[in-house]
Structures are given as structure tokens and as C-alpha cells.
Amino acid sequence: MANSKVAGPEIERLIQLLARLPGLGPRSARRAALQMIKKKEQLLVPLAEAMGVAVEKIGVCETCGTVDTTNPCAICTDPRRDQSMLIVVEDVADLWALERAAAVNARYHVLGGNLSPLDGIGPEDLNIDSLIERCRLGDISEVILAINATVEGQTTAHYIMDRLAGIEVNVTRLAHGVPVGGELDYLDEGTLAQALKARTQF
Amino acid sequence: MANSKVAGPEIERLIQLLARLPGLGPRSARRAALQMIKKKEQLLVPLAEAMGVAVEKIGVCETCGTVDTTNPCAICTDPRRDQSMLIVVEDVADLWALERAAAVNARYHVLGGNLSPLDGIGPEDLNIDSLIERCRLGDISEVILAINATVEGQTTAHYIMDRLAGIEVNVTRLAHGVPVGGELDYLDEGTLAQALKARTQF
Ligand SMILES: [Zn+2]
Ligand SMILES: [Zn+2]
């Protein structure tokens, strides 16, 4: 591609890396790179700094599986959170979506995906053992399965349900406000809040 | 917003900065940030490095106005480029688009925008004086006005035409392959290459 000799390999590399982000193709990555370079002081410098900070500080919480700058994370160590309630999500993006909905004041457990035999994803690839362990050891009275209403999500929910059999814990799931096949992260906050409040027995 | 207490101000700041990039809204900025954090070694670390390099090395070429890691830029110093031909563009994105089309082997002059009295953008806000100076001093025999086919673009082209009166230089413009009202950066490379080859007398 002629572009590589146009502006030095450094810019080309920046564009290629930006193009790997979700939502940015090669064309929009070029525009984003150019915007950064033009607005060097307002955009490129602070972004480079923010990413440097992220590289140094951000990691995975060993308790719940979310990402944060502390381990355990701010949510796991927050004394104002209800310690008896655990919300199980597939992904950190879902945790963020639920927090934006601000519907409950519980703690979370991030599975890191769904069971998917076709893709070779089994229970050992997800944070399921640690979930069972938290339920067994902790003072958890309710586990809310806030898992996507997809086939794989529901397979995962049933598997967790089976694994929790024999442990003294009430398992609920989100109310049927969540559209079938829909992903939590794309829902508006009002729908999410309602689905949480009207959650039903699993 | 509840999100700021979820995962520390560092992540929130990263998301806010990403949301300022063209093509990314708040939601896609969150997804992009999360993707980076999850793929720390493959994405976040190299991106942070590439941006650090960009902060240190990338600047504006004082000769032609493009961005590069050297000043003068790689194009201005390339001895294989036709020294007698200058392509005038509004923006670095247009220069990149023309280079991708790989239709001519000339040098460039980046105006940095268009004349727009309504927005208070006059000739002194663009790299027009330096263009006239290059044409007066250099061995330029042809100036190709590769300016967007918009009202403001054409106003700018006519203004440049007037300023070049009395200087021994042939002024051409892109052929009418460029759609009226269209922006160069969104055109496919074949159309751009054809428009360049069939350029007409201004
Ligand atoms: Zn945690
Ligand atoms: Zn240059």
C-alpha cells in the first residue's frame, strides 16, 4: 500500500492498531489517527497518557473478574454494597451497563463468556468454579443470573443452576423485559432497571 | 454518572477521551476501552507505545503542511518525485487518499481547510501565502488544484487562481469525475486515479 511511504511507518502502525478496535474500520482508523495528530495537545497527548496509566494500573479483580485499577476492585471492597447478593454477568460490559442502570447495590461475578461446545468453550474456560466457591463460602443469599437471553446464555444459566444445587442460595434471573436474543449492553437503562426489579425465580 | 465509581477514574478518563475520536460515540468508546483492557498485551500496550511515539515524533512539515515524523516530510525530500508538479489539497486526509490512488508522483501543498467567510476563515488562516511563495521561487510548472467540489472548495480554488495570476505556472484541476458536493477522502481509488489523469485546464 502506497500509504506506508507517505507518512512514515509510525503513523501507519498507529492506524493499523486503531483499526483493530471495535467500531473502527481502516478508513475511520485513518480519520481517528489524523484527528489525534492534528489535535495533538488536546487529544493525542492525553490519550497516550491515559493509555500509559491503563497499561500500568488496570488489571483483573481476582474476586469478581471485572477490570479495575485495584485488586480486589472498588465494587468488591465497597462496604455499602449488599454483601448477600451476587449478580452474575457474562462480560465486564454487562456489569458496566447494570451499574449505569443503578438498579441494585449488589456485587458481581463476571463469567468471561458463555458455554459454547461448538467453539470449544467449556466450564473450565469460564469463572464458574470461583462463582460456586463464593456461593459456598460467602454469606450469599441470592444469585441473580443477569445473562444474555441467547441460547448460549441460557445454556450457561442452566449449567450454573445445576452446579448450585445443594448450596443454600436463591437463584433468580432477569425479568422478561430483556428482548429474546438481545444483548444487555445495548439496552437502555430504564429497561435494564425494570428487568432487574421484576426478576423472577429461576 | 454511576460509571465513574465502577472502575476507577482512570478507565472513565480513557473512555471519555476515546469518545472524542471521529466515528466513536460514548457506547463504542466503552467497548473500545474494554477491548483494549482485555487484550492488554496485543492491543493496549502496543497502542500506548504507538501513541507515545506519535507524541514524540510526529509534527507538521513546514514545506507542504502534511504530518510526518520528519520535517521536511518524506514526500518533500523524496528525490524520485516530480519537482515541477504540485498538488494542492485541503487536508492531510486528501493527500493520503491521493497517495493511495497512486496516480501521480508529484509533491503536495496542504491548505489546512477552505475559505469560509461565514466561519471567519480567511486566506491568512490557510497555507496560501506559502503556496504562492513555493510557486514563485520553485521550479513549479503545474499546480493541480485537488480541492473538494463544494462551494467553499471552489471559492478557495478561484482565490488561489487569482493569487497565481502573473506567475508562470499552469493551473489545472481534477477532472469532473469527482461527484459534485463529494469529498475526496470518501472516493474509491479508481475514481480518484481517473479524475487525476483526466484533469482539465482551470
Ligand atoms: Zn471485584
Ligand atoms: Zn512536506
TrEMBL record, chains A, B:
<feature type="zinc finger region" description="C4-type">
    <location>
        <begin position="61"/>
        <end position="76"/>
    </location>
</feature>
<dbReference type="Pfam" id="PF21176">
    <property type="entry name" value="RecR_HhH"/>
</dbReference>
<dbReference type="InterPro" id="IPR023627">
    <property type="entry name" value="Rcmb_RecR"/>
</dbReference>
<keyword id="KW-0863">Zinc-finger</keyword>
<keyword id="KW-0233">DNA recombination</keyword>
<feature type="domain" description="Toprim">
    <location>
        <begin position="84"/>
        <end position="179"/>
    </location>
</feature>
<dbReference type="Pfam" id="PF13662">
    <property type="entry name" value="Toprim_4"/>
</dbReference>
<keyword id="KW-0227">DNA damage</keyword>
<keyword id="KW-0234">DNA repair</keyword>
<dbReference type="InterPro" id="IPR015967">
    <property type="entry name" value="Rcmb_RecR_Znf"/>
</dbReference>
<keyword id="KW-0862">Zinc</keyword>
<comment type="similarity">
    <text>Belongs to the RecR family.</text>
</comment>
<dbReference type="InterPro" id="IPR000093">
    <property type="entry name" value="DNA_Rcmb_RecR"/>
</dbReference>
<dbReference type="GO" id="GO:0006310">
    <property type="term" value="P:DNA recombination"/>
</dbReference>
<dbReference type="GO" id="GO:0006281">
    <property type="term" value="P:DNA repair"/>
</dbReference>
<comment type="function">
    <text>May play a role in DNA repair. It seems to be involved in an RecBC-independent recombinational process of DNA repair. It may act with RecF and RecO.</text>
</comment>
<keyword id="KW-0479">Metal-binding</keyword>
<dbReference type="GO" id="GO:0008270">
    <property type="term" value="F:zinc ion binding"/>
</dbReference>
<dbReference type="GO" id="GO:0003677">
    <property type="term" value="F:DNA binding"/>
</dbReference>
<dbReference type="InterPro" id="IPR034137">
    <property type="entry name" value="TOPRIM_RecR"/>
</dbReference>
<dbReference type="Pfam" id="PF21175">
    <property type="entry name" value="RecR_C"/>
</dbReference>
<protein>
    <recommendedName>
        <fullName>Recombination protein RecR</fullName>
    </recommendedName>
</protein>
<dbReference type="Pfam" id="PF02132">
    <property type="entry name" value="RecR_ZnF"/>
</dbReference>
<dbReference type="InterPro" id="IPR006171">
    <property type="entry name" value="TOPRIM_dom"/>
</dbReference>
